[in-house]
Amino acid sequence: MQLTHRFRRLRRTSALRDLVRETQLSVNDLILPIFVEEDIDTPVEIRTLPGIRRYPETMLPGVIKEAHAAGIKAVILFGISHNKDTIGADSWDENGLMARMIRSAKEAVPEMVVISDNCFCEYTSHGHCGVICDHDVDNDKTLLNLQQQVVVAAKAGVDMIAPSGMMDGMIAAIREALDSNGFEHIPVMSYSTKFSSNYYGPFREAVDSSFNGTRDSYQLDFGNRKEALAESLRDVEEGADILMVKPGIAYLDLLSDIRRHTHHPLAVYQVSGEYAMIKFADQAGAIDGKALMMENLIAFKRAGADLIITYFALEAAAVLNSRP
Ligand code: PBG
Ligand code: ZN
Fold it and tell me: How many angstroms separate the most distant Cα atoms in the chain?
């Protein structure tokens, strides 16, 4: 047998495999989502997300310090409001939950990159991502509120704005509001390609949302690949600093598409359903959860992601920190 090339020559030992591995995962790539709920005194376990909790505000500094000690450089904050109304006004109150979380996180560890999830669904009584008019979310009215929200977040000391509502023109509106208030230096990470996905199921329990409608009139249809690329490219035109694909594992084609069309940093959100599937399959003894976690995280990077928002951030950091 005269094979001209044998791929197996470079797979023979673990040192050789390390030498030619194309994709690396680092703790620098990880962003930890944190849930904070108003008016509770002890952490609440989330049944659908084993190991993940909603924390009382008083515990946020400790959570930030723990993440910092694990080498995590960035967190994204989700607030669960007990002061909901039809428009989500608490989210742009200078003493509202979003502003308080940001101040508390920055005070705990000033060098932590504190990112706010900028939306309204956890602050509205109906659970939609904006103002309802004629049975649908009104795009442009929502943008006006979003402008107020991001300025309040910036005044509270946020390091990065991450709008997740999939409103048209949201990046331009945010940029205009930030720049005209002296926050030209605050970057925007857009949830630029966000699908209307069944993978968000466990998140709904995580944020205690009674929401049981759909977001099909603002989030992307999961059958649409060209439109999904166009959404991210539009956000580049509007001034987004970082793009995002969400969810992750079922949408690697979009990571790859966006990677080939822009040179912006690209994030991926490994969402609640992806985390839950791995955790519950591990608990059932069907798969090795830790190994599958690492395989999924590497897959995101291989497909083109630079940053990964993941509920596994602390666990993955522990694996990475334990390597020689
Ligand atoms: C809402 C929001 C959602 C997630 C992050 N921000 C849910 C949704 O769009 O319904 C999902 C995160 C997850 O499932 O982990 N703007
Ligand atoms: Zn929302």
Answer: 75
